[in-house]
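Progress note, project year one: complex with zinc ion.
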Amino acid sequence: MKVKKLKGFRDVLPEESPAWIKLEQVVSQIFTRYGFAQVRLPLLEQSTLFSRTIGEATDIVEKEMYTFVDTGGEQITLRPEGTASAVRAFVENGFDRSNPKARWYYIGSMFRRERPQKGRFRQFNQVGVECFGWKAPGADADVITMLWDLFTALGLSGRVSLEINSLGCADDRKAYSDKLAKYGAERIDKLCDNCKKRLGKNPLRILDCKSPSCQEATADAPSPVDSLCDECTEHFSTVRILLDDQGVPFKVNPRMVRGLDYYSRTTFELLTTELGAQNAVAAGGRYDALVEQLGGRPTPGLGFAIGLERLILLLGDEWASADTPDVYMVYTGAEAFLMAMRLRRLLMLRSTTTTIDFEQRSMKAQFKSANTCGAKWAMVIGESEVEKGEVTVKNLAESQQQTLSINNAIELVSTKIIASDEE
Ligand SMILES: [Zn+2]
Ligand SMILES: [Zn+2]
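Model obtained:
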């Protein structure tokens, strides 16, 4: 019996990987310009890291984590998101003590045992950003602007919309949570069973329930913005002024509460209507208490994560094309094969991509393969070329050919290729 991949997991095959590589390049370029540096963190962490940060009463911790006891008897979890690990690393490496300001980003796989659906996998990839050390609203605006610039660079700014909200500080959140619990209790018979449970543990979550009866029952729920203290009101107002000043278009959505417990003050999402009901492609917010919660010195922070599978769906097949070789080596006979192999290496040292077939097939079959793989040039070495130490260079698109010395052939092809790359 053949072994199959696990449900909800996928292979990214070579024809898809150019999009991944290009996306990672654009991300790195934009984030680096904003002063963010890459961190690479473990995929496995102690399970308590996530229950302590994401929150016990969240879907992620309750039912979606891959948690198991390893052979050493330790309970460990495949990371379901990146922020908890980043904060853990920030504290563990003493950044909260020596240099409590840092701008980090990461690219990597996360794991959640969710119901598989379009663009959602149990191993999925995220780009995430964590910005530590700034309490001021400038940091919020800067991070959101960077997210917007990334989507603009990807040509997607017209296809996503930005929504922001503020949950306030811990006190405001508590006040709002109580208000919402009271509001929900008055309508408890209209709420789904899940929300009835949420009401006691995490009332904010009733606002992002997908059940139509819950959505109807909470349509005129109180807004968190009305529960903000003066300081949080001022903070939120400055974030909006700064975003306006940068020309970043956004809408305030008072129902956006985000699924994770650790958020405070600003939260935000980038939404699209093009990928079905689950419509966030990026989401984030401020988490001013998280560093302290993980044993560090109090350090404010904020960040966001982007789901890359869904982003690549949005970008579409045309966005990045597979690389085709510049040159196909065509040869006949054992000596020609040796020449072709040597010539191939010389070309590659000049940054030319080449390909060759090792099976010594007919010239006709090799030309056919050259056309199929999309090579621009063929380097042809037959008996007469071997004899004279020459090579026939054929431009496959224009069906023109000329026989040249090996040095001239290399010169011709690599110069033309460099010129066409610069076009
Ligand atoms: Zn407040
Ligand atoms: Zn519900």
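The first strand starts at residue 37 and ends at 38.
The CA atoms of residues 19 and 317 lie 8 Å apart.
No further modelling is planned for this target in the current period.
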